Amino acid sequence: MKESTVDVILHPVRMRIIQCLINQQLTAQQLKELLPDIPQASLYRNIKKLAEAEIIHVIEEIPNRGTIEKVYSIQNPNKSLIGPEEINTLPKDEQMGLFIKFMANLMAEFEQYLQQEKKDFAADGVTFRQASIYLSDEEFSEFAQDLVKAFSKVINNKPSKERRRRTVGTIIIPDKKNK
């Protein structure tokens, strides 16, 4: 049975590979340097899976000592996203499974942060919180557009020595509809 695009994307290792390739073009060796905790065989297997699912693409092949080194990229960033239309088509138990995988990926990133010898929540900007807000549909639409604008200002930033990758997860769960 062929694995769905959703399952391909939400695998913890593949999710990390995708995150590394956002706005970047990297070889498998460069990915290995960015993800040193992932065994090489596992990294290559998951790169292959992402390429077969057409989530990442080989954009260049560089001859290197008798072999070909492939450079990977996400050519269509929307291909690495799972939209509400696709989630709507899934049964309730699969929707819950997706949410659990999403949470597991966030938990894995937080655990990696905690494994550091030197960490400072305040200086590093680590935060997590939950808030309930009351909005009309129109106010919610405006709020969501403001979030998109805020993300769009920084989503295309390229890595540099001054920049540190930060993961921002958003979850919006509405209350039950009033009858």
TrEMBL record:
Keyword Transcription regulation set for record: no
UniProt keyword terms in alphabetical order: DNA-binding
Family annotation (Pfam families): HTH_20
UniProt-recorded Gene Ontology molecular function terms: DNA binding
Source organism, top-level taxon: Bacteria
Listed name of the protein: Helix-turn-helix domain-containing protein
